[in-house]
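Structure first, sequence second, as always.
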C-alpha cells in the first residue's frame, strides 16, 4: 500500500486519527457510564433484597408470635385458676383478689369489680386480641420502613439509568461527537478565512 504525504493527504490522515480518537473516547465514556449504572443497580438490588429478607423473617416471627398469643385463648370450659393465670400473664399490673376478702379499709373503694365466668372469658380473649393488634402494629411499622428503603433504592436505580441514558446510546453519542467535530471544523475554517488565509 502506498502512502502519499502531500498536504491534502496529511490533512485527511490527521482527520482520520482525530475521528478515530474521538470514537474511542466516546465508546470508552459510554462503557464507563454503563458499568457505573450496573454497579449502582447491583448495590441497590442488594439493598432491596436485604429489605425483602428482613420482611420475610419478620413475617415468620409474627406468625409464630400470633400463634403463641392465640394459644392463650380461653373458653367457658377453661378452669377459673387458668383464667386467673392468663389474666395475670396478659396484664401483669392487674391484681387478682383472693376469694375471701377481708373487711376493706375506710378509705378503700366500697365496690369491687366482679366478673362472672363468661365475662372473665371475654376479658381474657379481648386482651389477647389487643396483644395481636400490638404485634401487628409493630410489624407494620417495621414493614413500612423496609418498603421506604426498597422504594428509595428503586428510585435510585431509575435515576442512575436515566442519567446514563441522558448521554444516549453509543450510536447517538457517536453522532453527537461527529456533529461537534463538524462544528469545530467549520469554526476553525471560518477563523482561518477571517485571517485572510482562504
Amino acid at each position: 500500500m502506498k502512502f502519499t504525504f502531500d498536504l491534502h493527504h496529511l490533512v485527511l490522515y490527521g482527520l482520520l486519527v482525530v475521528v478515530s480518537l474521538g470514537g474511542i473516547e466516546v465508546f470508552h465514556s459510554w462503557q464507563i457510564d454503563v458499568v457505573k449504572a450496573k454497579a449502582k443497580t447491583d448495590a441497590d438490588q442488594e439493598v432491596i433484597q436485604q429489605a425483602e429478607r428482613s420482611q420475610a423473617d419478620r413475617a415468620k416471627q409474627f406468625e409464630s408470635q400470633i400463634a403463641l398469643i392465640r394459644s392463650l385463648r380461653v373458653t367457658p370450659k377453661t378452669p377459673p385458676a387458668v383464667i386467673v393465670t392468663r389474666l395475670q400473664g396478659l396484664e401483669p399490673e392487674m391484681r387478682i383478689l383472693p376469694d375471701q376478702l377481708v373487711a376493706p379499709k375506710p378509705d378503700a373503694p366500697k365496690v369491687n369489680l366482679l366478673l362472672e365466668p363468661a365475662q372473665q372469658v371475654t376479658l381474657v380473649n379481648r386482651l389477647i386480641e389487643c396483644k395481636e393488634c400490638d404485634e401487628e402494629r409493630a410489624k407494620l411499622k417495621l414493614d413500612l420502613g423496609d418498603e421506604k428503603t426498597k422504594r428509595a433504592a428503586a428510585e435510585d436505580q431509575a435515576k442512575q439509568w436515566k442519567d446514563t441514558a441522558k448521554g444516549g446510546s453509543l450510536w447517538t453519542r457517536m453522532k453527537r461527537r461527529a456533529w461537534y467535530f463538524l462544528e469545530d471544523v467549520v469554526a476553525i475554517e471560518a477563523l482561518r478565512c477571517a485571517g485572510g488565509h482562504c
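Margin note: Residues 7-70 form the longest helix (64 residues).
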